[in-house]
Amino acid sequence: MFFKNKNIYKIDLFILVSLVLIILIGLLNLYSATISLKRNFMLSQIIATLLGFILMFVLIAVNIQFLKRLYLPIYIISIGLLVLVLIIGTGDSVGARSWIKFGPISFQPSEFVKLAMIICLATVIEKNSSKLNEPKTLIKVLAFAFLPVGLVLMQPDFGTAFVFILVIGTMLFVAGISLRLVVYTLLAAIASLPIFYFSLSPYQKNRILNFLHPERDISNTGYQAVQGKIAAGSGKFIGRGLFKGPQNQFNFIPEKQTDYIFPVFVEEMGFVGGTILISLY
User: What is the maximal distance between C-alpha atoms in the chain?
Assistant: First the structure.
């Protein structure tokens, strides 16, 4: 059967309550971060949240055995979406082109592929669990896992690719891959870091350098990071209060509705609020 209704009754209420609280905090935080901007981000976020809840309950109800039988079609569709991004994808002029747009609708296929890859890779690992540490089997599993990673790197979206690699590595480690192989892989990765760095584009190098030392270019590429630090620090212990963060309300953080939404929250809710939010995760 496609659906297994009993799964709905097995939902962990603690996780569900934590999830709802995180979403409510997120929506309130987004409203605070965008209330001073001309563009309305709230409507699209609320719609995405509702669609996410519907998808969550559908996936909970789906019989996992049914999904396991469909792992190959799911994988092929995922690869197809990532290839499509390389053909018609859009994005920043100097950054990753990782979005597909159809009229007013846009989505990032790699976000869907993350979930699909967990399902597909888990199935492949299960099918090969007894001989996972055999070189032939391991190469096959790694090729299966890293094909989508390669396509994401071609966008080029190194942040998402890094998330993929972390997920793949964690799944293989939990599956019982040889600890010696894990150590060798980590050593090889560390040794290859200089090669990786010098192969990056100038804007990608700047992002890394600004992450490590945002003060090197305060007026330009490091401006956002520095302003985020100021916002987070000015919140102190209990925060400035909701809608009362100066860095937020006076738009000192340029793209505060994106990755820098957390400094906005800490500025207004302080160390206490930030700690509670992280604890919910």
Answer: 59
CA 261 to the chain's CA centroid: 14
Query: What does DSSP assign to residue 205?
Result: H
For strands 105-107 and 100-102, give the pairing.
antiparallel
- Digit-coded pLDDT (tens) for 205-223: 877 887 788 777 787 778 8
Q: Which residues pair with 62 in a beta bridge?
A: 3
Q: Rounded distance, CA 41 to CA 141, Å?
A: 40
pTM above 0.90, yes or no: no
Q: Where are the domains of the chain?
A: 65-199, 207-280
Name the strand (E) or helix (H) holding 212: helix 202-212
Residues in the chain: 281
Structure-token pair, residue 177: 């891959």
Radius of gyration of the chain (CA): 21
pLDDT in tens, 181-201: 888 888 988 898 888 888 887
Query: CA of 159: how far to CAs of 49, 95, 155, in Å?
Result: 23, 11, 11
Please state, in angstroms and rounded to a whole number, the distance separating the CA atoms of residues 11 and 3: 15
